[in-house]
Each structure stands twice: as structure tokens, then as C-alpha cells.
Fold these 3 entries.
Entry 1:
Amino acid sequence: MMPELPRTEISSLPAEEREVAKALIAALGDDLAALAWQGSWARGEANAESDHDLVMVMRRFDEELMGKIAAVFRGRATHWSTYIKTEAELRQYPAHGRLQFGYGMVLLHGDFEPPAVTRENLLEDLRYFAVEIGHEARYRLLHKQGPEKATDDQSRHGRILYYRAKMAVLAMKSRELLDGREYPVTRAELRERISDPDEIALVDIVERWPELKPEYERDFTPLALLLDRFVRKLVHELEASHP
């Protein structure tokens, strides 16, 4: 089910990605089995809030290698998010989360065997998303509102729910694959296939987060309610089609 990873030349990357990739390859040598670029920058849909995302597959990993990697990122102004797994860890990878190794990722260096994906893996993805999104939305709706919570960091709650909105977008993409359609790598591809107003609204929130962030950091309730409705619909669909 997993497609072959596309490759690109490091020389074609934006300046900082190119600099970081070359530095990691030089610092790690044969201990680095593969280096890949992923996330919104790799998909061509980054915004002002987007991290720079790399995936590193290591033949081995220890404190010394961690220090070498940390030295490459030290002092950089941009925000990086680096996902590191050893080859042995990939062989033990859990049932959910495997799609991240096959879609929206560009291989820059080396090679690796991504964890296999089955229909049950896709179901596990959707179940995992439902649990995580539902918990965060309901916890904040029940316990992080009202005058007695006025000192709480509202902006932090809004940002956490933004990340759960990104999970909801991933759930919509996984659902497409589960239903036998091609995986929509970008949000634009996903938007063309959905018609549910709540789902469209969640895609819009992720797409326009830098613009909408002040609104939802002041009052996260509408976003939490939107996420809760999404979870209830998702679970209903899973119960009906995959009990």
C-alpha cells in the first residue's frame, strides 16, 4: 500500500534546509541510514507557523550521536522538528502512524524500509485520532473555561487544539485511503473531495492558522466544539462500517 518515496537532490532545497541536510550527512557519516524531508514545507503548503521537518533513520543511536545532531541545529533562528528512529525501532513501529513514512515525504539521502501499512493500520490510525482529538477537546471544554480558570494560559489551549485540528486533517486523509481512494497528500487535494461543513472548516483553520490564531487563542471554545463534532461523526462512521 505504501508508494515508493520520491527523491530530490539536496541542491534543490531552500537554503537553510540544504545547509542543515549537508551538515547532518557530514556529521553522522555511515551512522545515518536515511534522511528525508517532510511536512508542510516539503508539500509546498507552509505558512508563517510551519516547522521545518526532517526524518532521520539511524543505523545506531546514542548520546554522542545525539550531541552531533544537536550541534547542527544549535543557534538556528527557524524552528525545526526532527523525527529520529533507528532501523530497529522502525521494525518495532506501532500499528498507527505508519502513513507518515509514505506520503508527503521526500528522500534526500540513503534509503530505508518504511513500516508496512495494512487496512488494519489505517483503522488504528483513525481510532487513535478519535481518542486523542476527543480527549483534548472535551477536557478543555469541561475544565478550562469559566471565571475560575481566568488565569489559565488560553493561548496554550488554543495552540494544542490547533495541533488536534491538524490530526483531524490527517484522519480525513487516512479515511480516503481506507475507502479505496488515492491518498490526498496536500490540503488542496483533500478539500476537493470533502463536502461536510465541519471538515471544510477544520481544513480552513489549519490552512489559515496564522491569521486565525489570535481569535482561537482568545476563545478556544468554537474550535473545541468543532473538533468534538468531528470525532463523534468519525466514530459513528467507524461503528457503521468497521465495527
Note: Residues 155 and 217 are 4 Å apart (CA to CA).
Entry 2:
Amino acid sequence: MKFLFIVQGEGRGHMTQAISLSEMLRNEGHEIVHVLIGKSEMRQIPSFFFEKINAQVSTFESPNFVIDANNKKINIPKTIWTNLLKANVFFRSMKFIDEKIKSAKPDVVINFYDLLGGLYAFLHKPKNYKYIVVGHQYLLNHPDFVFPKGFLIDKILISINSKIIASFAYKKLALSFRPMNNVVRKKLYVVPPLLRSEIKNLNVENKGYILGYILNAGYADEIQKWHTIHQQYELHFFWDKKDAPEDLQIDSNLWFHKINDTKFLDMMSKCGAYCSTAGFESICEAMYLGKPIMMVPSYGHFEQSCNALDATLAGAGIQNKVFNLDPFIEYIPRHKDISVQFRRWADSAHNLFLKLLTE
């Protein structure tokens, strides 16, 4: 079968999911005819995506969150207004998507939570191919999902966003930290995380340092503030700050690294614990490797608040509102390793995805 991917270009998770699924499908004789990934001035698509996806890749301008002056909190009103002002740009992007789909003639289009891919499906109504959406966000539509308290407006907004992206979807594949029942009447199928094959071949060690990933570079200030009082702890944080060097050494025990997926997974396998803004994919990787986790949802990022609570309920670790690592240092020796049951769930992805995508 011929597959075309549409990928949201913000953060790291959607990209690694696409890489993992492309490997899975290609190994079974299917073809990835084209990959379309959204870009913006705010983010840089890391080189590992182009190197690992092993298919023709085209980029298009896509909506992105607007961050406050401190480069931490998502400004929802400004995000909506800024993206509305770029409506003409985004209509050209949808025309570009239309041209690529008509040219590639795929049997299946898979959207990794890109808004314009969803708007395109809403306006054009898939006719000659199956349209399938993949993302942890669809689990929020599950009747058994537990939401963090408050966030009423955010809950409404993410619900609208998810409904737009899933317009006319043949199936919604909801990535989950643990097994849950399918909701077939909603076309909702609960699936394991899409972890790449590299993680399954890593030699797990504990060299004592704390590894981290921050979605927005402004959190570096919080980390450095904590580190000035606790310089005995070795910290390595990854970020996607555009103007930063590959490896920025603050002192002998604090480093900030540009996103490099091979280096990230290698350091993940050797760290003593993992501390991160609450992106779904890297939490899953740390769970697979049996690492204690502390999750700090990005300010104003409701989706990450949901991830943090859901992962905590699954036994991954703890959550915090800021990068104060004191409670994490206390928690690490008490952490109960759940990697055996999580690996069993994650390793079932291959057969389950192939069945759902090709039937």
C-alpha cells in the first residue's frame, strides 16, 4: 500500500512517531510516497527527521503556538490572532498539500496532529484514500480519560482542534501510556506509543546524571537558578534553541544540548532519571527504559498538563509546576520500576498498527 504522512513540526514527538511508523510499514513492504511536515519561524525542524524518515520530504507553513516574552508560556489569544492574520499563507499551504496528495495518489493519508492537514480533509473530504489520524490527543475523547482540574477553556479549545484535525477520519488512533478499551462508535482505537527500534536495542545503565528536555528555551533560567544552589548534581538538558551551539556548557555539571536524536537516546539510556516538559513521546521512552520521571508541563500548554497527569496515573513518576528538582531528588530512590509491563504494551504496537492501518 502507498502511504502519505502529514506531520506537525512542533516539538519532537510527532516526528519520532512518524519515523517509527515509516520503519514499521516499510519493513512490511509498504511504501511511504511522500512526507509533508509543517514548519514555522518559531521552530527549526531538526536534521534527524530528514535523515531518518527515509522518504521524500516537503515542508509547508503551518500554525504554531506564540510564546510569551520569557519564552515559556503559550499565549493562547495571541496564538489565535497571529495565525488568523496568516490565513492567506495557510490557504496556500493547503493548496500545496492538495497538489502533493493528487500527485502521489496514496491509498492512506496519515496525519500526525497537524491542523492544516485536518482543515484540508474538512474542506476536501477524502475520496480516493483513507484518512487516518494519530496522536495522544485523541485519548482525551475517551470516556475513561481523567482530566486535570480546571482548564475549562483549554479543554474546549483542544476539543475543537482535535475535531477539526479528525474531520472525516476513517480511524482515530489514540496513543496511550497503557491499554484501554476501544470506542468503536467514535472510530477511536487505543494504541501503544510509536517507539523507534533504536530504543529497544539500547544497553540500559545508570551513570547518575539527570537528563531533560525543554520545549521552550525560557525554562533554562529556572534550571540554572536551581543548579546554582545544587551544583553537585550533573544535569544535561536538550532544547531546540535556534541560535544555540550544539553543546552549551554552563559549568562542569550543567549542559544544554541542541536536539540530536541519537545523542538524546544514548544519554537517556545512561541517565539516572529524566526531567522534562511533558511531551508524550519522551515520557514513553523514559518509561520503556525504566527511568524515574518528573514532568513539568509548559505554561499554558493544556495538552502537556493532561500528559503529566495521565503518565503519573500510569506510574511513570511525579509532576511539578516548575523546574525545582528538590521533590524529584527525594522521589528518585522511591520510584517503582514499571518498565516490564510498559514494554509489553509498547512492543505490541507493530501488529496492532499494521492491522488497523491496512484492514
Note: Residues 87-104 form the longest helix (18 residues).
Entry 3:
Amino acid sequence: MKPWKPLAAILSLCVSAAALAQNLTLSLGTQLPETHVVYKGFLEIKRKLEESSKGTMTLKLFPGSQLGDFKAMVGQVQAGDLDITNTGYPDMSYIIPELKLIGAPYVISSYDHLKAVLKGPYGQRMEAKFREKGVHLMDVWYEGTRHTTANKPINSMADLKGLKMRTPNVPFLIAYAQAVGATPAPVAFAELYLALQTKQVDAQENPLPTIEAAKVYEVQKYIALTGHFIASSAILVGDKALKKLNPTQKQWLEEAIVAGGKISTAGVMKSESELVAFFKSKGLTVTTVDTGPFRAAMKPYHDQLEAELGAGEIQRMIATK
């Protein structure tokens, strides 16, 4: 039987070589438009993947909500119809309720704070829950700090009272609108500009790079630096997509996603440092508000979440360094 062992090894190597030689196109869908700085990270994934694989792997991009909103795309990834998507890290709270804890406004103070929490016990538990839902959390990129825009000056929380505020259809940002006295109006991101332009809504909240990319500054003239939420891009790869990859291809994908994250996060941070001046040059009024009342207004929601999902959880996150 000994002569057959080398033959088996040779055949195994041939199969591996053939697998590597096969051309493979992965698909990535996102709500973000091509003009968004985070999109440069997706382009870097594509570039790096093609470079590492010597052209045998590539990435087809579907930006601007072409495939639906984030919930639709998560469903497509779970079904294997789409390979990769991005959401805000806590946005899958509609199927993983514990994510509402980290999504609650004024819990996470910075991207570094977010990364520290994700490295700890909470983050490890959530990674397992993502996998239970058929998606793998590959990386978390910084997408900016969310602030509030409106069609009237915002000098204090009282100025938001009674305004119709567009939010994503996620519970913790709906809770933010309610807590500050506005009326939440969940609107799909793709419809945001039109909703503001037609006065369907009076206000909205997003990171500065998203406000710029979606041209919100054309239809809103006031920005309050509320800093209520650290936005992220969680890069999610479907379980079915990963099963299509051999170990080498999976490594190429993981390395490409990390490379994309470095480009994206650096770009967002640079953009944020420049955009206040840009918005002012466009005639917008940018105010720095006292966030104390905003934080106090969120406390009942924090208490509600801890009663529902774990006593002390939010306070442990806030204290994480």
C-alpha cells in the first residue's frame, strides 16, 4: 500500500491547486453611496483581494442600497444570495436584542472605547451570536460620530422638541429621537434626501461624512454636534460564503478586509477633522451644544435596557477602558 500514499498526496495537492486556480467573484452590498469615504475601504478590499489571489478572486460591489436596506441585505447574506454586507455594529439588534446595550446613545464614547468593549466578554458573546445567525463578524470599522441636523437652529435640546426626526429603523436611535423630545420617523437611508427636501421630516442624525456624502447639507442648514453615538461599519460575511472558500482564500479575504478597514477608518477620521469647516463654507450653522441634558434624557432608556437585558451591563461598558 505504500506506493499509493505519495500518489494520494500528489492528488491532494492537485485538488488544492485547482481550487486556488478557479476564478471566484464575491458580492458585497451596502447602503452607502460611492461618494462615502467608507466606500474607499470596500474598493481596497477588492484591490487587495485581486492582488493577493493574482486575479483569481474579485469583488463585485453593489452600493447605494441597490439590493435594499441593511435588513434586506443581511437576509440575503444569511440565505447565501449575497456574500458580504456592512451594518452598524449594533444594527442587528432586531434579531440579537443584546446589541441594543452597546447601541444605546452615550454609552460608547469613541472608536477606541468601542474596540475595547468588543475585545472583552461582551464582544466575544456577541460574535458567537452573529455566527448563530449565519453571519461572521470579520471587522468593525469607524464610520464617524453621529450628530443632529435640522431645519431650524439647535442651541439646546429644547430646540428639538416637536420636530419630526428621521432615524434608521433601529430601536436605540428611535429612542434617542424620543428622549430629546422629537417625533421619530424611520425612513430608509436611500430616501433620506427626498424626505428632508419635501419636509416629510424636519431633522435627522448621522455622522458628518454621511451628512456630506448624502448631500444632507443641501436640504438642512443647521448642525448640532450632539455626539450621541459612535457609528461603525461591521463587515459581515455569510456562513455560506465562507464555506465556498478554501483556507488560503479565506485568509486572503480576511487580510483584504483588515486592509480596507485601515483605509476606511483613516479616511473617516481625516474627513471628520475637515467637515465642520466645509459645512460652514456652505452656509450651515454648526453649534456645540451642552450634551448634559441629552445624556440625562437617555438615562431612563439605559435603565430600561439593563432591566431587560442584564443589570449593570451598560455601566460595565461605560467603565471599560
Note: The CA atoms of residues 10 and 249 lie 20 Å apart.
